[in-house]
Structure formats: C-alpha cells, structure tokens
Specification:
elongated; 103 residues
Length: 103
C-alpha cells in the first residue's frame, strides 16, 4: 500500500517539480490540464466539502463560518494554480529573450 501511494505521489507531484528545475521551460510545453491537473485534483475534496456545507448548513451556521470558508476557497484557488505562475513566467522570459536577441 505504501509503495502504491509513494509511486502515485512521485509520479504526480515530485516528477513535475524536478522536471521544472532541470528544464525551466519544460512547463511551457504542457497544456493547462497537464500543468495544473494534479493540483486541481488535490483541491477537489475540500471544494466538495465546502459545497456540501453551503447546501446543508442553516443561514446562521453559514454566517458563522463564512470568513473561514472564503479563506479556504481562496487558498484552494491559489494552490490549484501554483504551477501556472512558473509557466507564465518562463513563457514571458522566453519572449523577452527573443525580443532582446532580435533588437
């Protein structure tokens, strides 16, 4: 069981991280789903739980937990788009490099 979990974690999270540090522009050659899919999958359960709470809680319970729920929501958004920032930065850097070489 631990071997299976280790293989999944290695394949899904550690390999893209290592690949990014070996070849920083490799992330720009992937599409949006391939770049961010693993992070979205991790964030799916907290978002489903949050949806369940908003559908089943009373108005009073929602008011009491609303600030924390919005904090969690923004945290999930930022976590799910973590890989998009290096991809955009690498793409921008390559455009600037090409522009400087042409000029």
């Amino acid at each position: 069981m631990c071997k299976l979990i280790g293989d999944v974690l290695l394949k899904a999270f550690i390999r893209p991280f290592r690949e990014h540090h070996i070849d920083p522009t490799a992330i720009t050659r992937h599409d949006f789903i391939e770049t961010n899919g693993d992070n979205f999958a991790v964030c799916l359960l907290p978002m489903l739980h949050m949806s369940y709470k908003f559908l089943t809680y009373s108005q009073m319970q929602i008011r009491e937990t609303y600030n924390w729920e919005m904090f969690d929501f923004l945290l999930v958004i930022f976590i799910s788009l973590t890989n998009q920032v290096p991809a955009a930065a690498a793409a921008l850097l390559s455009v600037v490099f090409v522009f400087l070489c042409v000029v």
